[in-house]
Amino acid sequence: MEMSHRDRESIRELADILDAKGLTEIEYERGGLRLRVVRTAAAAGPEALPPPRPAAASEASKPETAEAPPEPEDDATQSIVSPMVGTFYTAPSPDAPAFVQVGGRVSRGQSVCIIEAMKLMNEIESDCDGVVARRLVENGQSVEFGQALFEIAVS
Questions:
Q1: pLDDT tens for each residue of 27-48
Q2: pTM of the full structure
Q3: How far is CA 150 from CA 65, 113, 134, in A?
Q4: How far apart are CA 89 and CA 98, in angstroms?
Q5: Which of 11, 63, 97, 122 is the most exposed place for a label (fewest CB within 10 A)?
Q6: Within the chain, what is the greatest distance between any pair of CA atoms?
């Protein structure tokens, strides 16, 4: 089956997104057409990836640690992990307060951060009730699928 110009253009656009976001695989489906673009290990070397974004030097962008609450027992903590690859943000906008603070209470279903993936802002919710023991990621940092974002002292 011959690929149309439109199909080739769609593949090029997906490849550009791979390069721009530093991804190794992307899949797209629309109107019965399903495209999957995968970067091979040889092409995914350091020269193929975009340069890392410099971290902001402000104190607010550094990971926070719990000072007031005592360190919880290992079995009493639960991690909130990233469900996708993207960029981690602590607040809905740069001038808004963070969704949660270390030492603050969270409830199941409460938004704790945003992961931006392909220009879409995805609110990440807590899947337990408790107290935020640690934030493990800096604001604006790239995160991977399954990476721990927060540790919650379950209550």
A1: 777 766 676 777 665 444 444 4
A2: 0.53
A3: 10, 10, 6
A4: 9
A5: 97
A6: 65
